[in-house]
Structure formats: C-alpha cells, structure tokens
Amino acid sequence: MGRTDYLHDPDAPTANSVVPSVVAFVQNEDGRVLMIQRSDNGRWALPGGGHDVGESISDTVVRETWEETGIKVEVIDLSGIYTDPGHVMAYSDGEVRQQFSICFRARPIGGEVRTSDETTQVRWVAPADIAEMDVHPTMRLRIDHAMDQTRNSPHIG
Predict the structure, then answer these.
(1) How many domains are there within the chain?
(2) How many CA atoms lie within 13 A of 121 on its CB side?
(3) Tens digits of per-residue pLDDT, 15-41?
(4) Based on the number of CB atoms within 10 Å of its own CB, is 20 exposed (0-12), middle (13-18) or buried (19 or more)?
(5) How many other C-beta atoms lie within 10 A of the C-beta of residue 36?
(6) Among 22, 33, 56, 97, which residue's beta carbon has the most beta carbons within 10 A?
(7) CB neighbours (10 Å) of residue 100?
(8) 110-145 exposure pattern, b = at least 16 Cβ within 10 A, e = fewer
(9) In the prediction, which pLDDT does 153 show?
C-alpha cells in the first residue's frame, strides 16, 4: 500500500482517521541509529507503527521494531509526542490519517538486522550521515529531539 505525506499543504486531503502510533529511536553501543527505508514511500525513518488493542504502548515499540528490523529492544524513556494536525498521511486504500506519534528511546538487546514487507533496507547509521538521507521533516524532528540527551522533559506538540 502506498503512502503520501502532506505537511501544512493547503491541497492535502482531509484526515478521516487518527491512529496512535510509535517510533523507536534506537542507538547501539557505537552511537549508530537504527533506520529503516519504508517500502510504502521509499523514505528513511525510525522503525515504528500503529498501536494494537490489548498491548501496552511500550509493547508496541518492542513489537514494531522487531517486526520491521529483526532487532529486539528495551524501552528506555519517552522522547516526544507529535500531534500536528497539519501533517496527514494519505494511503492508497483511501485512509487519510492525522499524525499521532509517540517517540521512545530504546536500546538494542538482541536480534540481527533484517528487512520485512514494510522495509526495503535496515541499517545502523552514524548520526552525521542521517542529514544526507531522504528523511521526512517530521521524522527528522523526532530524531533531533531524541538525540538531544540534555532535554529534561519530552517534546509535546
């Protein structure tokens, strides 16, 4: 299923759903960040996805990271909550989703990097190299906030 992101675009379609979702900012012992190339839009992103009924939000982080990357993680803390109504995602099935994303910091505890049906590539990336990748501005904001270890409280916006 294809996906098109719209950010403060007056021609964007009107949202018809909101789905709580998560992304995981995972750094290994070398400081590299776990990044995926999404199969739905080709862009690089943090692993993540929608929250399912019957699971805690931290369980969602662990499940989505495992499903998309093959890496097992442990949630460390909350980095930010992102609910910009000007960011909508239009899917090829007609769903137009308003952003509702929670970013968590996590650490790897096992597994081996692999792709899935949602990812075309999975890599550990040096933070300096992320600037050269095709990353949506809203995902880049999450990465920047998560990398800032000096922040005392999560970003909420």
Answers:
(1) 1
(2) 12
(3) 999 989 999 999 999 999 999 999 988
(4) middle
(5) 24
(6) 22
(7) 19
(8) eeeeeeeebbeebbbeeeeebeeeebbebbebbbeb
(9) 67
Tell me the residue length of the chain.
157
Integer Cα distance of 10 and 86 in angstroms: 9
> How far, in Å, CA of 6 to CA of 8, rounded?
6
Domain boundaries, position 107: 3-149
Q: Does a structural domain hold residue 157?
A: no
CA distance from start to end of the chain:
28
Which pTM value belongs to this model? 0.90
Q: For position 16, which CATH number holds?
A: 3.90.79.10
Q: Give domain status of residue 42, yes or no.
A: yes
DSSP state of 128: H
Q: Is 156 a member of any domain?
A: no
Rounded distance, CA 70 to CA 130, Å? 21
